[in-house]
Amino acid sequence: MAEFDYQWKYTLEKDNLENEEDMYECNEKRIKEFLEQFKNKNWFFKKPSFKGKVCLDAGCGPGRWTCALQKLNASKVDSFDMSHEAITRCKKINPNAYVFDIMELKENHVYDFVLSWGVIHHTNNPRKAFSKLVSQLKKGGMLHIMVYDKRNDWFYEGYRGEPTQKRKEWNSLTMEKKLELCKEFAEKKGGNVHGWFDALNPEFNWSYTKEEIKEWFGEEGFSNIKLGDMGFNINMNGILE
Questions:
Q1: Which residue has better confidence, 93 or 204?
Q2: Cβ-based burial of 61 (10 A; exposed 0-12, middle 13-18, buried ≥19)
């Protein structure tokens, strides 16, 4: 999609990342960052590595977590994203990276671990996208997702969550004006231009409660459902029975 291609091509410049200019480089920092997202005592992460695990990074972007899974000794990592620009970057570290739409996934229960980080809330039907992810998982495997938390929509001043007048205003802006607004938000509220653009620019920006997401896991037959400490977002995983 053009909106994501622009994001990955033009918002990763040093000035747009501030103190996080290496956040998409494949190095040892990615391991620490990845494991910090899973401080929820789920048995799956008590093991020191992903050795022997076949993993899917669904909506991988340039491959930040693909890199972490590789360095944690996953036996194989498949990665996909709708953005050609993101996959061009991801292929530099993972030859098994493809341009693909999550909604086109066919039932294929081959993965021990499926990760979808900040992805399904940008689809036109997040619940359907969730089921598509489940269709890739082995019995006994783990699905981990991160989605926007409805409680924090206020922080984005009407630009995120349910469609609003502010969203219409955003859509009418030129790309240059959008980046200027992201810079204003970063200066006023913290973060960086890249992060704000990532949060505001996608066509769909759905948000949910943790109860809603836990219900999805339950409906799909998951057990040991855990909520991570993620602050502004919902960070949840479970084991498929």
A1: 93
A2: buried
